[in-house]
Amino acid sequence: MKKTFLISYSLLFYFLFFVFTLVFIPLMFLGVAATRLFLGQRRAMERFRRAINHYGWVIINLLPLGLIRVNYKDLETGDRRPPFIFVANHRAASDPFLMASLPYECIQVVNVWPFKLPIFGNLAALAGYLNVRRLPFEEFRSRAVKLLSQGVSIIVFPEGTRSGSKVMGQFHGAIFRVALETGAPIAPICLMGNERTPAKGSFIMEPALIRVHKLAALRKDQYQTFSPFKLKNHVRDLIAGYIAATEVQ
Amino acid sequence: MNMADVVVKKMVDEVFIESFEIEPAKLVPGANIFIDLGLDSLDIVDLVVALQKKFKIQIRSDERLRNIRTLGDIYAFIEALKTEGSDLKTKD
After folding, report:
1. Within-domain flag for A1
2. Which of B5, B40, B43, B46 is flagged as catalytic?
3. Which of A134, A145, A216, B88 is 20 to 30 A away from residue A128, measured at CA?
4. Which of A137, A170, A233 sits opposite B42 (nearest CB)?
5. Is A214 exposed, middle or buried (0-12, 13-18, 19+ CB in 10 A)?
6. Do the domain assignments include residue A203?
7. pLDDT tens per residue, range A163-220
8. CB pairs below 8 Å between A and B: how many?
9. Least CA distance to A233: which residue of chain B?
10. Which residues of A touch B21 (CB under 8 A)?
11. How far apart are the first and last CA of chain A?
């Protein structure tokens, strides 16, 4: 009975996802194209990235019909002005969509395969998402530095692949070298409760309460003496420690 | 393990402790430098620079670097360089 319900619910979710995508994406392209005519490249790109954010927000908050709830909490006590480097743990395929909770203009650092997806790959490329596997590090660094200088925040999942569980993998360090160069604040993002929405290797969406908690950012003066290796592990420890303390409650 | 190998092992471990602040207890021959010690491809570049500085040698273009996976592989690689007669500095 439960399995039948989960399959039915998942099918309904993907149907709504498909229909919403078919309607929203063309409208978004039209809107951005119109914006480009009147506002210029930079403003149009900002509107485009915000539109992607709205798209993701609807998917994670409305399409689940209340059975998957997302609780976003911002624990920042300091300056909230962008740009930030957002560093998140990576549990499930829903993680990139959960980043729609962040109220900032963002791009994501992604692996090769998202760029190959129809529609989403086009969106990612147009929005300036960074393909960390294809770009030589110098090109990656250069683009990331430019984006940050424009006020665009960067979201990264340094594990590089979904853990599929509550255990975090090791972090790749490219973005932390960019942080050391630019001094951009690093805000850890803790994703909890989504390891089965969907589970790795499955398409079944299980009802869940997903928590997206943004921790207080590490500022330049707190990490500028760190090596890249030390910095990535420090941020990893912050995320792991917060998740461990929160998930036992 | 002879005395010279002990010195090589000690100096390699010093590189990991000084450059990466890795706890000495984690530095066992079987430790995978990527999975267990957490280095990534960019850290490997830093590691090579640190090893070159420590042992006063050039190893950056050595093809055998591609096959290194564990700390034991690094020990063996440095020891092999010594055997091949590279001008390897093993005194502090």
Report:
1. no
2. B40
3. A216
4. A137
5. buried
6. yes
7. 877 889 999 999 999 999 999 999 999 999 998 888 888 899 999 999 999 999 999 9
8. 34
9. B38
10. 227, 229-230
11. 30
Q: A139 with A118: CB under 8 angstroms? A: no
The C-alpha R_g of chain A, in whole angstroms, comes to 18
Is B26 an 8 Å CB contact of chain A? no
Q: How many CA atoms lie within 13 A of B88 on its CB side?
A: 19
Output DSSP code: residue A82: S
Q: What is the pTM of this model?
A: 0.91
Q: Do B39 and A229 touch (CB under 8 A)?
A: yes
Residue A191, min C-alpha distance to chain B (Å): 21
**Which residues, including other chains, have CB under 8 Å from residue B47's CB and lie 6 or more apart?**
B15, B19, B20, B33, B39
ipTM of predicted assembly, 2 dp: 0.83
Closest C-alpha to A237, from A141, A158, A160, A180? A158
Taking residue A170's Cβ as centre, other Cβ atoms within 10 Å add up to 18
Dist. CA A69–CA A182, nearest whole Å: 35
Q: What is the pLDDT of residues A44-79, one digit of tens each?
A: 899 999 999 999 999 999 999 999 999 999 999 999
| Owning domain of residue A239 | 67-247
Compute the distance between CA of residue A6 and CA of residue A8 in angstroms, rounded to an integer.
5
Least CA distance to A228: which residue of chain B? B43
What is the DSSP code (8-state) at residue A218? B
What's the pLDDT score for residue A133? 87
Kindly state whether residue A186 falls inside one of the protein's structural domains: yes
Active site residue B40: yes
Domain ranges of chain B: 3-83
CATH architecture of the region B3-83: Orthogonal Bundle (1.10)
Q: Confirm whether A209 is domain-assigned.
A: yes
B42 touches chain A (CB under 8 A): yes
